[in-house]
Inverse folding.
């Protein structure tokens, strides 16, 4: 069935059964937090505030690991008949969720305000709007930013207020910062290698996919050159460890002084701020042909297999959690960006960013941001690209051969959708 046909089915179902919210609606929300602690407490606090303001709605928040874990658990619950009305999942899951007829468009939920759908940053909506419908609402959103140790910059004779703005500067500064047990730069290549690679490819002037989810460009000359450049940072320039760099331990490596610069999600900002024992800075990613970063993180989705009352209750919860005041508090507590311009106009976030300007870097980078890598068959296509990146970085295949294989696999997977 073509995607456009499926959109019509979902829209008709959503509109036909829309009725007002009644008392005592219970929601189960799956949420991606890999471990307990601060983030769990923040979300619990927001949910408690919502329930206090909406006594007719009860929210059961299930913390379900990383984004992939959350998708698996939420969809398993749906298939087994367990309750699940909404979830925060990867923004890049939208094509697959639509194709499987699992989510409802927000436009088709009774009572949604079109102006509200237009109130979020356009760059954060790029993964959400497909064939004229809005399928996801941004919440836990990010761009990749460059963290750097200002004390190490000073010790190396570099200006701590002037991080690299080009690839050439990144290499030269990285060489000045590399010594002993410290590398000048670490870019993670596990966890979400495709995300970091997409950033490098954008900076090298090339998108790795089309904007309709149907085509990839992994074997394009500029994309191959991008992977060769990433490999050169360790093999030729010596500013990064050989092999792979672990996503999950990189923040701690930065805090322990094992690297002077790291690329990572802005979602780490508050944790770095609270734990760094040195002066640090945050910068937009450096440019080659152009500057840029993909957006990242999660969107709210409402599942199709829900009652009209549950949909409207879910809408109220999502409106509450993405309101300017809550988005500002969330950004301050986590480092993820406020998802709307109105969030940055709140007194709380204006005061915070005046005191701590690094909190504006990810937001400012939206000017040069693009949609995160997403296609039909996203998980399988993405896995092929991840494998290609890691094969090149570990020396088991050349960048050209690895990306050519990934492109061939992607073409096979996407052929049915073309």
């Amino acid at each position: 069935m073509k995607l456009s046909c499926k959109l019509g089915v979902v829209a008709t179902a959503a509109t036909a059964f829309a009725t007002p919210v009644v008392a005592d609606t219970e929601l189960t929300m799956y949420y991606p937090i890999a471990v307990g602690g601060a983030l769990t407490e923040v979300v619990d606090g927001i949910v408690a505030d919502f329930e206090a303001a909406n006594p007719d709605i009860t929210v059961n928040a299930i913390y379900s690991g990383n984004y992939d874990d959350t998708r698996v658990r939420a969809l398993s619950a749906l298939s087994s008949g367990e309750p699940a009305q909404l979830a925060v999942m990867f923004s890049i899951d939208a094509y697959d969720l639509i194709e499987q007829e699992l989510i409802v468009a927000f436009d088709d939920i009774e009572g949604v305000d079109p102006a509200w759908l237009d109130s979020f940053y356009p760059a954060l909506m790029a993964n959400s709007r497909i064939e004229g419908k809005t399928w996801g609402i941004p919440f836990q959103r990010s761009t990749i930013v460059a963290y750097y140790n200002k004390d190490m910059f000073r010790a190396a004779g570099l200006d701590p207020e002037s991080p690299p703005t080009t690839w050439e500067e990144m290499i030269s500064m990285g060489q000045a910062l590399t010594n002993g047990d410290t590398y000048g730069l670490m870019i993670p290549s596990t966890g979400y290698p495709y995300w970091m690679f997409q950033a490098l490819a954008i900076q090298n002037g090339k998108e790795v996919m089309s904007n309709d989810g149907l085509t990839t460009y992994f074997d394009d000359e500029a994309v191959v050159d991008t992977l060769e450049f990433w490999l050169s940072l360790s093999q030729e320039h010596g500013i990064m460890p050989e092999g792979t760099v672990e996503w999950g331990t990189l923040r701690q490596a930065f805090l322990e002084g094992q690297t002077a610069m790291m690329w990572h999600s802005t979602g780490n900002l508050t944790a770095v701020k609270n734990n760094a024992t040195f002066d640090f800075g945050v910068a937009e990613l450096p440019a080659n042909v152009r500057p840029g970063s993909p957006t990242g993180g999660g969107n709210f989705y409402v599942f199709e297999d829900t009652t009209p009352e549950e949909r409207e209750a879910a809408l109220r919860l999502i409106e509450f959690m993405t309101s300017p005041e809550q988005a500002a508090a969330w950004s301050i507590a986590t480092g993820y960006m406020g998802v709307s311009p109105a969030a940055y106009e709140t007194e709380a976030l204006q005061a915070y960013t005046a005191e701590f300007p690094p909190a504006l870097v990810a937001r400012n980078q939206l000017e040069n941001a693009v949609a995160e890598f997403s296609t039909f068959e996203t998980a399988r296509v993405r896995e092929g690209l991840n494998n290609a990146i890691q094969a090149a970085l570990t020396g088991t295949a050349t960048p050209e051969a690895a990306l050519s294989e990934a492109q061939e696999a992607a073409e096979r997977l996407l052929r049915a959708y073309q």
About this structure: The two ends are 12 Å apart (CA to CA). The longest strand covers residues 137-149. The beta strands are 25-31, 57-63, 86-90, 129-130, 133-134, 137-149, 261-265, 280-283, 293-302, 369-370.
